[in-house]
Amino acid sequence: xxNIDQPTEMTATEGAIVQINCTYQTSGFNGLFWYQQHAGExxxxxxxxxxxxxxxxxxxxxxxxxxxxxxxxxxxxxxxKDSASYLCAVMDSNYQLIWGAGTKLIIKP
Amino acid sequence: xxxxxxxxxxxxxxxxxxxTLECSQTMGHDKMYWYQQDPGMELHLIHYSYGVNSTEKGxxxxxxxxxxxxxxxxPLTLESARPSHTSQYLCxxxxxxxxxxxxxxxxxxxxxxxxx
Lengths: 109, 116
Hints:
The structure holds two protein chains of two kinds. Helices cover 0% and strands 57% of the residues of chain A. By secondary structure, chain A is mainly beta. In chain A, the strands form two sheets. In chain A, strands 2, 4, 5, 9, 10 and 11 form a six-stranded mixed sheet that branches. In chain A, strands 1-3-8-7-6 form a five-stranded antiparallel sheet, with no helix packed on it. The radius of gyration of chain A is 13 Å and the shape is globular. Chain A starts with a strand and ends with a strand. Chain B is mainly β. Helix content of chain B is 0%, strand content 44%. In chain B, strands 2, 4, 5, 6, 9, 10 and 11 form a seven-stranded mixed sheet that branches. A four-stranded antiparallel sheet of chain B has the order 1-3-8-7, with no helix packed on it. Chain B is globular, with a radius of gyration of 13 Å. The termini of chain B are far apart. The interface between A and B is medium-sized, with 25 and 18 residues.
């Protein structure tokens, strides 16, 4: 079967750095997405990786290793507004998105 | 910012009722999707569409139907609501055609459905 694994919840301090990991097992791979979802709201796009390596976008960076079936989202200079769930999703060989359950990130002052 | 709308935002309804959840986008996107999401859980694909007159079933499609008569409109219908349908329903769209598989999905604000 297809599977996306992420930690259920993480806690970090305002101003710090946090890394949210995602491992996947899917039938084929056509890219990995990270989305942010605030409580009660819709997901919003953060990043897309299809090649190995690090993609940096402001305070957020995303890394991919296809051989290891692994990705992480790195958030720097954490702000209170970063408190949200972070969803990892992989596009499989049928170009369907397989979603993880999300990692709830709690930021403390 | 994407322009994708869902109505109603909240709905409380009794068992056995027929309901239609509306989704519209003003961006001319070809591909549209319906997802179901319970709190703290992953999104499950219910239905999707590649364009007008195209509809495909996802993982949770058996108890609902969709139509795509116009590009901008992709309504979801539950013929007979049950308490197990209580959930959040998210509509999404992507700009690409059949070849643009990896386009970002833009989500609507969601409909929170409660079936009593």
